[in-house]
Design brief:
Strands 1, 2, 3, 4, 7, 8, 9 and 10 form an eight-stranded mixed sheet that branches. Helix content is 53%, strand content 18%. The termini are far apart. The protein is globular. The longest helix is centred in the last third of the chain and has 32 residues. It is α/β, with parallel strands linked by helices and 348 residues long.
Length: 348
């Protein structure tokens, strides 16, 4: 009797122990919050810029809106390399997000270059009218490459910043022009037009201007003033070349892990940030140019006749830009939507 009773006790004890062990195994999953999704996000945007300030605001918003479930770690000022390097790091899983300008976005989908065709657009409104039309297709193509666009923005209108006064194409042809490394088609187009493009990394630009490796570059006034590039290249051509279009992107597989209940709020925070950045860029250009002029920058005027020279030169290069640099269908779509917009505002 005693032996049978002990056997039954051992069976009951063993079953209870197994049940308790099973419950304890569930405790970490049920009782403890999941680890947050950490998004390492890189950008060339200087950390002392208003653009980076907006990114910091979004960083805080995402943390609050997600209840700490999604956290952004920002790497500013090009500390993770140029845009093409950042895109490669995302593909390798080293980064999960980025704020990219045209050259970085084009490393994902070259059709983005259609938004920055030189001298094809006359205003912010024109460019964003085209962006609105092209967004669905562009974002679908970017999605196919494994990335999701969170917002669209820009870094202002690109102008030539030079070490000698440049008012005409012939003036610029005499100078060594910085161009992004890793884009041979762009170099070919510049060379075919008679210029002297020199490939380099963005991190090389300041030193290159100082030691005369580069004598000219193109950037927006906002970037020129923040990076103090005007101290090495003290002339700015008073002519808008193209809009420096940008966007915030995230890896598609990472975005898929974000809980569905908070995605709309996070996306709205990013969309609002993009709108704020666009407004800041529009408002700051004149002030930034004035600040640089006060510090010694010389603004080089461009007469209507001289601007016509630039237009003639770049339009002669459009057949090569279309196809070699910008995919033909995207180029045609951008011009079509631009012309449609101009008709709506009564502009030829």
């Amino acid at each position: 009797m005693i032996a049978k009773w002990l056997t039954r006790r051992r069976v009951v004890f063993t079953a209870a122990a197994l049940a308790l062990a099973a419950i304890l195994c569930l405790v970490p999953t049920v009782g403890r919050a999941q680890s947050p999704i950490v998004i390492k996000m890189a950008t060339l945007v200087p950390v002392n810029s208003s653009w980076f300030g907006v990114l910091k605001e979004v960083q805080a918003q995402w943390d609050k809106l997600s209840g700490g479930r999604v956290k952004i770690t920002l790497y500013g000022g090009g500390t993770r390399g140029d845009d093409p390097e950042v895109v490669n790091a995302m593909r390798l899983g080293e980064l999960q997000g980025a704020v990219l300008v045209s050259v970085g976005l084009a490393a994902i989908e070259k059709s983005v270059y259609a938004l920055s065709i030189p001298m094809a657009f006359d205003s912010y409104d024109e460019v964003y009218a085209v962006i609105d039309k092209m967004r669905p297709q562009l974002e679908a193509e970017i999605d196919k490459q494994g990335f999701v666009v969170l917002n669209w923005a820009d870094g202002g209108w690109i102008r030539f910043l030079t070490k000698q006064a440049v008012a005409t194409p012939d003036d610029l042809k005499k100078l060594k022009l910085f161009q992004w490394a890793g884009d041979p088609k762009s170099l070919e187009i510049w060379k075919a037009a008679g210029f002297d493009p020199r490939p380099g990394q963005y991190s090389d630009l300041m030193v290159g201007l100082q030691n005369n490796m580069f004598q000219a570059c193109s950037m927006s006034p906002q970037i020129a003033v923040i990076g103090r590039y005007y101290e090495k290249a003290q002339f700015m051509t008073d002519m808008d070349w193209a809009l420096l279009v940008g966007a915030t992107v995230i890896k598609k597989d990472v975005w898929a892990k974000v809980p569905a209940d908070i995605k709309p709020a996070l996306m709205k925070a990013m969309t609002d940030a993009g709108a704020k950045l666009r407004a800041d860029m529009r408002a700051s250009a004149a002030k930034d140019i004035a600040a640089m002029q006060k510090a010694g920058l010389k603004l080089v005027p461009v007469t209507p006749a001289q601007k016509a020279q630039w237009k003639k030169l770049i339009e002669a290069a459009y057949p090569k830009i279309r196809g070699d640099f910008v995919p033909a269908d995207a180029f045609d779509a951008a011009i079509k939507y631009r012309d449609e917009y101009r008709k709506t505002v009564g502009k030829k």
